Amino acid sequence: MTGPVGPRLVLVGPPGSGKSTVGRLLAERLGVEFRDTDADIVATAGKPIADIFVDEGEPHFRELEKQAVAAALAEHPGVLALGGGAVLAESTRALLKDRKVAYLEVALADAVRRVGLDAPRPLLAVNPRQQWRELMERRRPLYLEVAAAVISTEDRTPEQVAEAVLVSLELKEA
Ligand code: S3P
Q1: Residue 131 DSSP label
Q2: How many CA atoms lie within 13 Å of 42's alpha carbon, on the beta-carbon side?
Q3: 128 ligand 1 Cβ < 6 A
Q4: Which ligand 1 atom lies nearest to the CA of residue 139?
Q5: Model confidence over 154-166: pLDDT tens digits?
Q6: Is residue 36 domain-resident?
Q7: What is the CA(73)–ligand 1 centre distance, in A?
Q8: Residue 96 placed within a domain
Q9: Considering 15, 79, 105, 122, which has the largest number of Cβ atoms within 10 A of its Cβ?
């Protein structure tokens, strides 16, 4: 028998939910590689995401993202984190069906605090609180649609979030 194809688990959630930090911890715990589709897009395009948005526009970025997600789902056997907007694509949501997908839920205040300290996000450049709220109104149903587990990040350390993901997705060794 062959093993399952593609990632052991996939993390989705809005910017600032901790996908990269938690994803790295999970990869370490599971003894697998971590991959992040944002980084794949940057590598393919040869420039930062903010520059892709400015030079080619968001629709072009979303095309690159669809391709990057499909490629990673097909070939990456470890832990995979998707960019916050990846679930907007119907084709991506279809590819996520029946996979171990964890949605990291985060409150607005925590997300804004984290994003403020992190790499620049073009969609949140102006009025991040308002932008983030609007993004979430549109995306929450989509995150829920693809999620096999919904994990609260509130009052939890990244280690505790990683543990909750493993338990919820039944990936923990007994
Ligand atoms: C985006 C989130 C970013 C990145 C791009 C667009 C979004 O990824 O893909 O800036 O639409 O929410 P993170 O969720 O890793 O910040």
Answers
A1: H
A2: 11
A3: no
A4: 12
A5: 999 999 999 999 9
A6: yes
A7: 18
A8: yes
A9: 79
Q: Which amino acid is at 118?
A: D
What type of residue is 60? Answer: H
For the entire predicted model, the pTM comes to 0.93
Can you tell me the distance from the alpha carbon of 93 to that of 99, in angstroms, rounded to the nearest whole number?
10
Domain CATH number, residue 60: 3.40.50.300
* 101 bridge partner residues: 10
Q: What are phi and psi of 160, to 5 degrees?
A: -70, -35
Q: Is residue 173 part of a domain?
A: no
169 contacts 125 by C-beta, under 8 angstroms? no
Q: Say which residue the tokens 């393919």 belong to.
A: 44
Task: For residue 120, give both structure tokens.
Answer: 């620049």
Q: How far is Cα 152 from Cα 59, in angstroms, rounded to an integer?
A: 30
Kindly give the number of the ligand 1 atom that is closest to the alpha carbon of 41.
9
- Stated length of the chain: 174
DSSP 118: S
